Q: What sequence folds into this?
């Protein structure tokens, strides 16, 4: 059995990360401390029950515990119909909670972001914070919020639109379709300036592992590489300029998007998120399971 002091040392290695996660989820330094302490208590109980040796990824295990504790707290908060964040519970915008660089970066999101997050449903907030702020995979988030990975992606997507200033309930599909059509037309024509005009300056491109693997396999035939992520309008525009010749309109997660469907069979999909009339996020999907669950496409002419 691992000695308690050794276990405590291992826990302390992750405390700063756990505090950052809990603070983003709860918006209250006091509640965040409580959530982290609860994670320690659960780890201690697991150790005493001689199960700690089965925890291969302690950081991931603790992050999951903290997320579940925070989700319960958010749901209880909603049920009580209380204000989510008291003004004196928010950390000052310039307050440095710890010397660790990761927490300083997370804290730079600031009070304004916390206020926006309070408008999200608990599960949306958990999905958005874990994925967009701490890069936790959707497959790992899904069991926490009690949904499958595809539905969890949709939670994060809705949250992202609201955080970016486009509430999910107020999105205009016709306007979004026009933006997507303009993006695809500019991509096909290799019109770099027109492509830039459709993209938010801070646009993020993400590709799923299957898409990255397919691109790597085709590199020998001269196909361009596809990174898992790309940031910024110029980088994304360079990746699409002169391409998307066979892309066709479709719905992805119920939002206007596009597919590559040779012979009427969807092989790849492009999911878009929008902010202020521009494309703020692009997700390239080639995982067959995700395509089945997330894409609506009519191959009829």
A:
């Amino acid at each position: 059995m691992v000695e308690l002091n050794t276990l405590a040392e291992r826990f302390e290695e992750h405390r700063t990360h756990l505090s950052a996660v809990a603070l983003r989820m709860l918006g209250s330094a006091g509640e965040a401390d409580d959530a982290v302490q609860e994670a320690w208590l659960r780890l201690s109980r697991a150790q005493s029950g001689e199960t700690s040796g089965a925890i291969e990824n302690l950081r991931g295990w603790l992050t999951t515990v903290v997320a579940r504790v925070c989700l319960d707290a958010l749901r209880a908060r909603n049920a009580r119909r209380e204000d989510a964040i008291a003004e004196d519970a928010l950390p000052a915008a310039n307050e440095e909670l710890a010397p660790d660089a990761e927490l300083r970066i997370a804290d730079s999101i600031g009070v304004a972001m916390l206020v926006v997050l309070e408008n999200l449903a608990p599960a949306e907030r958990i999905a958005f914070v874990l994925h967009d702020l701490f890069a936790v995979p959707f497959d790992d988030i899904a069991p926490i919020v009690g949904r499958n990975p595809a539905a969890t992606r949709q939670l994060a997507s809705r949250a992202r639109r609201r955080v970016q200033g486009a509430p999910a309930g107020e999105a205009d599909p016709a306007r979004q379709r026009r933006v997507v059509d303009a993006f695809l037309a500019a991509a096909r024509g290799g019109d770099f300036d027109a492509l830039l005009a459709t993209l938010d300056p801070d646009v993020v491109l993400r590709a799923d592992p299957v898409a990255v693997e397919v691109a790597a396999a085709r590199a020998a035939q001269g196909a361009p590489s596809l990174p898992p992520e790309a940031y910024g309008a110029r980088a994304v525009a360079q990746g699409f300029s002169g391409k998307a010749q066979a892309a066709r309109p479709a719905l992805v997660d119920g939002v206007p998007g596009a597919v590559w469907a040779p012979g009427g069979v969807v092989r790849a999909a492009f999911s878009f998120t929008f902010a202020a009339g521009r494309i703020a996020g692009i997700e390239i999907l080639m995982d067959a399971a995700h395509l089945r669950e997330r894409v609506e496409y009519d191959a009829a002419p």
Notes: Residues 81-109, 166-170 have pLDDT under 50 and may be disordered. The radius of gyration is 21 Å. The chain has two domains: 4-163, 169-296.
